């Protein structure tokens, strides 16, 4: 079965009954998590030490993908997939042409790595494009354009070509870049 088939799947986090949305432009639409509705729920299940709070959905700390500083990630629909601590950091990262596409490609591979670090099988450009476009149709990623971007990140050791003989090629996030904010990866500060 196609793993992107529209299905009404509910978030696996105990305190959450939101639907997992990975198709269509919607605030909660995300192409990364298959068992959770959002970054908030995924992270809060990963980090049990943060769940000692008596609140049902307490804010949890997450590092900003621009400045690297921890900020409070919140459960509400509006904030559950937030990756920047502030508008300032968001604008700093989104500067430049077609940067949104680079952000989504890197964010996709980074999240897939974080969800399952031992899965080294990788993703083809076609799979990456299909999943990102399903959740963010306005980006209109193309397979060719995505492969070009990925090539540049391979040259900078941010993405790994998992098997140089494989056809089509498969890619994964390089674990050495996992603690570097996306802004530094995209704007070349490493
Ligand atoms: Zn959830
Ligand atoms: Zn920040």
Textual characterization of the structure:
The chain is of the alpha+beta class and 190 residues long. Among the domains are: 50-90, no CATH class; 96-186, Arc Repressor Mutant, subunit A, CATH 1.10.10. Helix content is 32%, strand content 9%. The protein has six helices and five strands, in the order H-E-E-H-H-E-H-H-E-E-H. The chain has helices at residues 39-46, 87-93, 99-115, 125-135, 143-155, 182-186, and strands at 60-63, 70-73, 123-124, 159-161, 170-173. The protein has a three-stranded antiparallel β-sheet. A two-stranded antiparallel sheet has the order 1-2. The mean pLDDT is 91. One zinc ion is lined by residues 64, 66-67, 69, 84-86, 89.
In short:
The chain is an alpha+beta fold and 190 residues long.
Task: Draw up the topology in text.
Blueprint: H1 39-46, E1 60-63, E2 70-73, H2 87-93, H3 99-115, E3 123-124, H4 125-135, H5 143-155, E4 159-161, E5 170-173, H6 182-186
Antiparallel strand pairs: 1-2, 3-5, 4-5
Order of SSEs? HEEHHEHHEEH
Small molecules (ligands, ions, cofactors) in the structure = zinc ion
Unreliable sequence segments: none
CATH architecture of the domain at 96-186: Orthogonal Bundle
Distance between the termini: 40 Å
Q: Mean pLDDT score, rounded?
A: 91
**Coarse shape:** globular
């Amino acid at each position: 079965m196609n793993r992107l088939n529209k299905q009404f799947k509910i978030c696996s986090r105990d305190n959450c009954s939101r639907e997992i949305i990975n198709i269509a432009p919607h605030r909660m639409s995300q192409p990364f998590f298959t068992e959770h509705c959002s970054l908030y729920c995924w992270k809060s299940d990963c980090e049990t030490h943060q769940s000692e709070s008596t609140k049902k959905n307490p804010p949890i700390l997450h590092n900003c993908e621009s400045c690297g500083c921890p900020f409070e990630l919140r459960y509400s629909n509006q904030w559950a997939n937030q990756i920047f601590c502030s508008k300032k950091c968001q604008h700093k990262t989104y500067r430049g042409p077609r940067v949104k596409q680079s952000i989504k490609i890197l964010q996709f591979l980074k999240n897939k790595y974080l969800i399952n670090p031992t899965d080294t099988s990788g993703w083809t450009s076609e799979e990456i494009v299909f999943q990102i476009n399903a959740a963010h149709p306005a980006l209109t990623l193309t397979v060719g354009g995505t492969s070009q971007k990925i090539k540049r990140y391979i040259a900078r050791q941010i993405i790994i070509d998992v098997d140089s003989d494989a056809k089509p090629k498969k890619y994964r996030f390089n674990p050495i870049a996992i603690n570097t904010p996306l802004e530094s990866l995209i704007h070349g500060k490493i």
